[in-house]
Structures are given as C-alpha cells and as structure tokens.
Amino acid sequence: MSAVAVALPPAGPGFWRRALRHPSFAIGAVLSVLLAAAAALSYLWTPYSPYEVDMASKLLAPSASHWMGTDVYGRDVVSLLLVGARASIAVGVIAVGIGLVIGTALGLLAAARRGWVEEAIMRLSDFGFAFPAILSAIMLTAVFGPGMVNAIVAIGIYNIPTFARITRASANAVWSREFVLAARACGKGALSITIEHVLPNIVSVLVVQATIRFAIAILAEAALSYLGLGTQPPQPSWGRMLSEAQTLMFQAPLLAVFPGVAIALAVMGLNLLGDGLRDLLDPRLARKR
What is the Cα–Cα distance from 157 to 21, expressed in whole angstroms? Predict the structure, then answer.
C-alpha cells in the first residue's frame, strides 16, 4: 500500500466535486482568494497613493472619488486596505513558514528517536507556550525596537511548539502502522522511513494546521500593529488603521469599520478553509460525503 494513498485522497475530479459541494471549503476558498487578490492588485493598481498625505481631503465621507472615504491624513481608505493586505499575508506566510519548518522537523525527530530526545523537545515546546506572540514581540521590541521583522519572528516562534506537538502526535500514530513496521523489518533506517512514509502521511494534518495558524497570524499581526509593535509607518496595516481610528469613533466611525471587517473576513475565510480541508483530506470524513 502506498504511504501517500493512506493519507491523502486523490485530487481528481471526485475530490473537487466534493470540495465545491462543501460549504465551509467553498466559502473559505472564495474569501481567501479575495484576500490574495487584494494584495496582488495593490502591486499593480490602487486608486490613490497610500503614502501621500493630503490634509485638504481628510475625513471625507465615501463618495465616487473615494469609495470608502479618507482617513485623518487624507489618504484613501481603499488604497490603505489593499496595501495593508500585503502586510497581513507577508507576516502570515513567513511566520507560519517558520513554525511549520522548524516545528515539523522537531516533531518528526521526537517521534523517530523517542526517549530523552522526545521528552526534551516536548518540554521545550511547553516552555515555548509560556511566551505568546504579543509577549514575545514586546520583549523583542524592548531589545531591537518595533517593526514587521520582530513581529514575524515573535509569531513564528509562537507557532513552533504548536507544529512540533501536532507533528509528533501524528507521526507517532504513523510509526505504529503495519507498512512502517514492514519497512523497519526490511532494514530501512529512521530517516528513510520518516521521509518516505511518515511525512507523506501527515501532510494533510500539517496543511490544515498551517491554514488555521495563518488566520491566527493575521490576528496577531493586527494586534501587534494596533499596539504599535508591528508594521511601522508609512507602511499601511489593518491593525494600525484601527488604532488610528479609535480616537475618531464618533466623528468618523467607518474608519474603524472597514479595517475591522477586512480582518474579520480574512480570518473567517482562512478558518472556514481550514475546516473544509480537514473534512476533505480526512479519509474517514471523505467517505461519508
């Protein structure tokens, strides 16, 4: 039996038919594509420059020339939202990538070696859970100053123990399977079994977890930017747009509504996509659909 076939249903016409009929996956995919499209569009076109200050046009209401109005500095809100999507995606991709690569490697090592190696990695993961992303960002800011790089590092470090624990638990289940025992009986080493059999069988779990952690990273980046620890001016950020709008809640409440809705839709889309992928990539749930 193929190791890959055990973990992943074939991505053929049947898979995509089930995917399109799955409401969580379909809605999540649409929202996630819109998020990526907004970021990609901002590299090619924005209605106005998001960096240009025009005090004569500050706090304009939505109109034909400014679809969502302008902020306190006269910048077009649509342009700020489009460019702000870049920061959310950049932080999410890199931070989740850090956690995925390092955490998966540690989890696979723990499952393969067992004993004191597994115990040491798991206790190190427990220690990592004691430092949430915001707390880590505050510590990094105190030493190196605020910025997107420090936010990425803080969120990435926070993701490592999560991926390590999930990888280790999933890999331990695969190590007890018959085809792995057969591979060991044939003389294959731990590294070969991990790469050829264990890792392909936990890819679906990692993909689902990465999607969900992506949503959490977007929330963390918005929170850090709101506190002034994340993306710094003049680079637009959804979290900093909320921070700047909080003093204008009665004068221009829409300035807080638009970035808040953008964050909510992005997080909801990624969470729905993750839930849909979990159902579609789990062979037991896939057979029920």
Answer: 36
Is the per-residue pLDDT at 58 higher than 80?
A: yes
Over residues 101-156, the pLDDT tens digits come to 999 999 999 999 888 999 999 999 988 888 777 788 788 877 888 889 989 999 99
d(CA 197, CA 181): 11
Tokens of 28: 């999540």
Tell me if 7 is assigned to some domain.
no
In a domain, 97, yes or no: yes
The CATH number of the domain where 204 resides is what?
1.10.3720.10
C-alpha 178: how far from its chain's center?
A: 34
Counting the structural domains of the chain, the total is 1
**pTM summary value:** 0.89
250 located within any domain:
yes
219 within a domain of the structure (yes/no): yes
| Full domain range(s) for residue 175 | 70-272
Report the alpha-carbon angle 195-96-101, nearest 5.
Answer: 25
Contact predicate 247/71, CB 8 Å = no
- Name the residue among 237, 240, 210, 236 with its Cα closest to residue 226: 240
Q: What is the mean pLDDT of residues 83-105?
A: 95
DSSP 230: S
Element housing 65 (H / E)? none
pLDDT at res. 4 = 38
Q: Position 153: which residue type? A: V
